[in-house]
C-alpha cells in the first residue's frame, strides 16, 4: 500500500507554509520529511493558481495599482554564469492591486523587462470587464504593455519617487531614507493625478514579504528552483486574498471584491 500522508499532516504543512515558514521549518513543525514538504509546496502552489484563475475573473475594479518586487532564484544576478539556466537570478513578482478591496487581481513572476510586462498586463486585462484607472511606477516597460492591451483610452498615470541618497554606513542595505520629490505623469487618457499613486501596492509589498519567506531580503530563505518559487508566490497571494482579513475593511480582499 502506498505511503499516503494523512489529511491532518497535509493541513499542518499548508498552515506552516502560509505562515511564512521555510520548507525545513514546515517539515519540523508538521513532523514530516523535508522532501515531502517540497513536493507538497509545489502541489499547493499549483492548486492556488487554479483557484485564483477561477475566482479572479470578470472583475469590475475601477482603480488599480501595479508594482514589482525583487527576489531571486538560486543566486544573485551578478553571480549568474552564461551556462546557468535562464530562470536563475532576478525573479521579480509583478502584482496588480484593486485599491478599494486590496484584492490582488494578477501576479506574475519573471524578469523586470518588456516580456514580463507584456505578459503581466495581458493577464490583468483578461481578468477585467471594465476600463479602470491605472497607476504604476515609472518603469519604462509599462506604457507599451498598457497601450497594447488597454488602448489609449485608458486613464493611466505613472508616479516616480526620487529617494534621498547618502546616510550612515549601517544603512547601506536599507532603502533611501525619505523622498526628495514625487513626479506624476499622465501617460494615456485623463488620469486624476491627485489619485495616481502606488501607496496601497507598496504597503502590500511589505505585507507579502512577511508572508512569503522566499521573497525576504538578506536571508538564506530563497528559492533554489524557479517552479517552486512561482508556486510559493501563488500560494502566498491566494492565501492573502482568501484568508487574510484587512483590518480597515474587516473582511478578506476576496470578500470585499465579491470574488
Topology:
Blueprint lengths: L6 H12 L4 H8 L3 H22 L7 E7 L2 E2 L15 E2 L1 E7 L5 E7 L3 H13 L6 E4 L4 H10 L4 E9 L15 E10 L10 H13 L14 H18 L9 H5 L2
Parallel strand pairs: 1-6, 6-7
Antiparallel strand pairs: 1-4, 2-3, 4-5, 7-8
Mean pLDDT: 91
End-to-end distance: 40 Å
SSE topology string: HHHEEEEEHEHEEHHH
Q: Report the major sheet.
A: 6 strands, mixed
Beta-strand fraction estimate: 15-25%
Structural class: alpha/beta
Helix content class = 25-40%
Low-pLDDT ranges: none
Note the overall shape.
globular
Put simply, the count of helices is 8
Instruction: Give the strand order of the largest sheet, numbering strands 1, 2, ... along the chain.
Output: 5-4-1-6-7-8
Q: What is the alpha-carbon Rg in Å?
A: 19 Å
DSSP, total strands: 8
Task: Give an overview in words.
The protein is of the alpha/beta class and 259 residues long. Helices cover 39% and strands 19% of the residues. The protein contains 8 helices and 8 strands, in the order H-H-H-E-E-E-E-E-H-E-H-E-E-H-H-H. Helix 1 crosses helix 2 (23-30) and helix 3 (34-55) crosses helix 7. The protein starts with 6 loop residues before the first helix and ends with a helix. 36% of the residues are buried. The model has no long low-confidence stretch (mean pLDDT 91).
